[in-house]
Amino acid sequence: MVQIRQISALCALLGFALTPVMASAQDGSSKAPKITQAFRAEFQNWLVDVRAEARDKGISESIISSALSNIEPVARILERDRKQSEYTITLSKYRKRVITPNNIQFGLSKRNRHSNTLNRVAERYGVQPRFILAIWGIETRFGAVTGTMPVIPAVATLAFDRRRSKYFRQQLFASLKMLHRGYISLPEMKGSWAGAMGQPQFMPSSYIAYAQDFDGDGRRDIWSNEGDVFASIANYLAEHGWNNDLTWGRKVIAPAGVRRAAVKSFNRKERGCRAVKKMSRNKSLSEWARQGVTKADGSPLPNRNLSAAMVLPDGEKGSAYLVYKNYRSILRYNCAHLYAVTVGELADALWVR
């Protein structure tokens, strides 16, 4: 979920960002390389090796020829890769793009329209409907904005780029595998500027691993079948440790000293993306309470035997959150605190009690 963001002015206008699942952002050069003639020539030489590896992986010659002929590196993809909104705006600005009265009302109308399917998905996969709705809403405005960029040139450009070449090379071969297996045709294979596809914005490898055929029609249609969309989102969360008995977390009031201690306890050596490295160590809710942490309205924390980590998306002086195990499942979808907190708060706003 890399924090690979807005593919068009339309997305910015709507206040939603197209985000690929499991494309974890890493530190790298902040300046996009220039697409020179030498760069293009090197890209074409690189494609020769890609074609050879595709053959070794059993991809048909017809797919290799149709998908990898006449493609060029795309400059605006490299530029967008260096300008990812979760790391350039505050939580307040980001959430205000998403958690608006209009978007909440739109989401509730979708909840009412698809309540039967959502409830059946929730029962099968053990993921509450409000979280499925929230991710669907943030990813593609409840299916309205799914992206128009051809996937193969997008992932090929990012695979050639040194910053995250290993990850996107995997996505390129996963894309070819999808075409080879007939999951989708090349003209239909469009998505975000980073290759995220369909209403859940799955990267190709995530599609292969987690997309679901909920209605049993023989297709895992994350482009136009809402049942498959909901089931695929739910399956992704479930496969990454979702607990149906928990929520995601909550906004809290925390003393300044507690915030400072939380920052000092960040485990920057932990494996994973930057967001995972910027979470405090887990403590029980009772321990947080003893240190003076309360709910955002000043009332006591829940009296439950749960552990929670503190997250400070805008730094030590910004808003504070205590988050549970499910929060990490959301981070597996898109590893950025701005994204995960906004998913949680939008889910809360869409909760039909």
Please give a quick description of this structure.
The chain has 353 residues and is of the alpha+beta class.
List the helices and strands and how they pair.
Elements: H1 9-14, H2 37-56, H3 61-68, H4 75-81, H5 91-98, H6 101-113, H7 115-125, H8 129-140, E1 149-150, H9 151-160, H10 165-181, E2 190-191, H11 204-210, H12 226-239, E3 249-253, H13 256-264, H14 274-277, E4 283-284, H15 285-290, E5 294-295, E6 307-311, E7 320-323, H16 325-333, H17 337-349
Antiparallel strand pairs: 1-2, 3-5, 3-7, 4-6, 6-7
Helix pairs in contact: 5-17, 6-8, 7-12, 8-12, 8-17, 9-10, 16-17
Q: Could you characterize what this model shows?
A:
- The protein is built from 17 helices and 7 strands.
- 49% of the residues lie in helices and 6% in strands.
- Strand 6 (307-311) and strand 7 (320-323) form a beta hairpin.
- Helix 9 runs antiparallel to helix 10.
- The protein has a domain at 249-323.
- The protein is of the alpha+beta class and 353 residues long.
- Mean pLDDT is 90; it is low at 1-20 and 22-28.
Strand order of the largest sheet: 4-6-7-3-5
- Uncertain segments of ≥5 residues (pLDDT<50)? 1-20, 22-28
Q: Into which percent range does the helicity of residues fall?
A: 40-55%
N- to C-terminal separation? 29 Å
Count of individual beta strands: 7
- Largest sheet: number of strands, sense, barrel closure: 5 strands, antiparallel
Count of helical regions:
17
Based on secondary structure, the structural category is alpha+beta
Shape: globular
Strand content: 5-15%
Give the rounded overall mean pLDDT.
Answer: 90
Order of helices and strands: HHHHHHHHEHHEHHEHHEHEEEHH
Radius of gyration: 21 Å
